[in-house]
Amino acid sequence: MTSRFPKSPYPKGWFQVGWSHDLKKGEVKALKNFGQNLVMWRGQSGDIFVQDAYCLHLGAHRGIQGKVVGNDLACPWHGWEWNGEGRNSRIPYGDDGCKPNLRIKTYPVVDWHGIIAVWYDHDDDLGIPEWELPELSEALRDDFYPMFPHGARKWTVKSHIQMPVENAVDPAHISYVHGSSEVATVREFTPTDHRFYSEVAVRYGGGKASTALTPEGAKIAEIGRAS
Fold first, then answer.
1. I need a labelling partner for 71 at 20 to 30 A (CA). Which of 125, 182, 208, 225 fits?
2. Measured distance CA(73)–CA(200) in Å, rounded
3. Within the chain, what is the greatest distance between any pair of CA atoms?
4. pLDDT for 142-192, tens place per residue?
5. Considering only CA atoms, which of 118, 122, 123 is closest in space to residue 107?
6. Contact 202, 174 (CB under 8 A)
7. pTM of this prediction?
């Protein structure tokens, strides 16, 4: 099945790699994303950095006992320091000082409403994002319920990453998989560049006088989804 998909199993775009609340200043974390070992740290300025894990000196994994020095990350093996652009900024011994031409692959990263997200593109080593994540104005309000920690959940799904997203354009499955009394109705489906907006009408509680979700009888809910 995977042979039918593009050569990379991961599409280009923004991916969540953590929660902002979980990463303190000076903290380093090892990540496994896109089938690769990565390292993430938060500098003393509060900025977050994500890079390939391995030091270009002798290949140590910097996410395991690496240390933050200012905004840079020091390798746990020989102390070579790497800045947020992935360049070698300091060698703590010898006469070289540093090797600024060395550069570890670095991923664009944003702290988006409490979510740490990185840009990934299999075909672009420079990693320049083609679009930015949208601003959610309601998330900036004091009365908005934050996603973290109570709204944070993790599920493991053994499928190609594209398949769960296809739910948004597959309303016919709702009656069979989720037990709706009738096939959902598509009210709107609008693709625009890298995004689409869909609005689907689903009847809850159909054929029943009362349910936990519909104590007063069946109701039609309109579900909108952007991706």
1. 125
2. 47
3. 81
4. 887 777 777 777 888 888 777 777 777 788 888 888 777 888 888 888 888
5. 118
6. yes
7. 0.82
